[in-house]
Amino acid sequence: MKRMIFAVLCLLFTTAALAQTSDDSRMGIISPNEDINYRLFPTQNIWTFLKHDTRNGIIPIVQCSTEDYAMGYPLNDTPLALGAEAIPDRFYLYPSGNIYNFILIDQIDGRVWQVQWHQDKESRLIIPIKLAENR
Q: Which residue, among 108, 128, 102, has the nearest Cα to 49 in the 3D structure?
């Protein structure tokens, strides 16, 4: 009987330990599909996601809510690739250690941008990261 109780307790503690995750665990969730037009990236804010158009780099901010506050608004609404160059999975977002920042990469030509989301329009930005040569 003691062995049975011990086994059940071990199972419960193991399950509880595995169920606890850090805030960063949401950041690694991506769609397993390839050649898709959109990906939804979670931020470290549980109500905020980035809807990323993988073809052209356009990124709207999507906020969910348990009330009547769900909405979407632009972060980057300027295409970074046009026409035949806008192909699925061309652009990809990588989370950074900062709650508001992601890195956007053009997986074809290697261009890189800092993407900063924020509720305040003035604090949102997407700026190219110039890579220094022979520094």
A: 102
